Prior knowledge:
Elements: H1 2-14, H2 20-39, H3 50-62, H4 67-86, H5 113-122, H6 131-144, H7 148-152, E1 159-160, E2 165-169, E3 175-179, H8 182-192, H9 211-225, H10 233-246, H11 251-258, H12 263-266, H13 268-281
Antiparallel strand pairs: 1-2, 2-3
Helix pairs in contact: 1-2, 2-4, 5-9, 6-8, 6-10, 10-13
Amino acid sequence: MEPQRLQFLDYIAKTKRMSVHTVSAYGHDLLQFTDFLATQYVTSLADCKPIHIRGFMAMLLQNNLTPRSVHRKVSSVRGWFRYLRKQGELTVDPMSKIVLPKMPKVLVKDIPATDLHNLFARFPWNEVANGERDRLLLLMLYTTGMRLSELIGLKVGDVDFYRQSLRVLGKRNKERIIPMHPEMVDWLKAYLEGHTQAMLFVTEKGKPLYPVYVYRLVNHYLKLFSHAAKTSPHVLRHSFATHMLNNGANLLAIKDILGHANLSATQVYTKNSFEKLKQIHALHPRK
């Protein structure tokens, strides 16, 4: 099974162009699955039955994995079997009769717009080291909705001041153009004066940013002005979409800006807005 696993990982890395992180996650999930099959004395994927898949899921749940984590791992296995069927190495898909555990419905939690306004308007950015960079970085995450990985990969050459837009390389190397907020255009021009690095954002030592660095930076500033339970770059992406929708933006336009492949991924924000509408309506005196 190991040669088949490595062949599949090579396929999703080179043909599907999945990120190194995603390929690594798939590899770990599939290794965990084949290790489980070994405990069931299954030495060939052709001998894998639905009962083995269900046993794998039961084992994961017994190990206190969340339904979301189980979904992800079983999704990795499903993709592997689908690939092997296309290659003609399997004739029957044992995943066809598998029912996944129900996922708990979790609404996206955004940072209140007033909190973010106060952060940008009241914080003394000029009085802290790298304040100009930090302010621009936060504003870019909030006004574009881009992913953390996309922000880190931005180069100076991705900025188009003439069209007031940014070129972003998203998942699976899909490129998209995001319009820039007018306020961000002014800050970006000032920031780039004397900027000599190829990357748009760098650390104090002139090195490229990395995920943990950005997470700590965003968390630090948001905690100063917000009591939200989660304060991360991804929450700013949620906030962008939610606030845009609350102010009448078209759902399809938000989908394109976020770089979602399917509209269903964007529709989660409609639920968040509906919950807020219900809270407001609950204040009606005739309730």
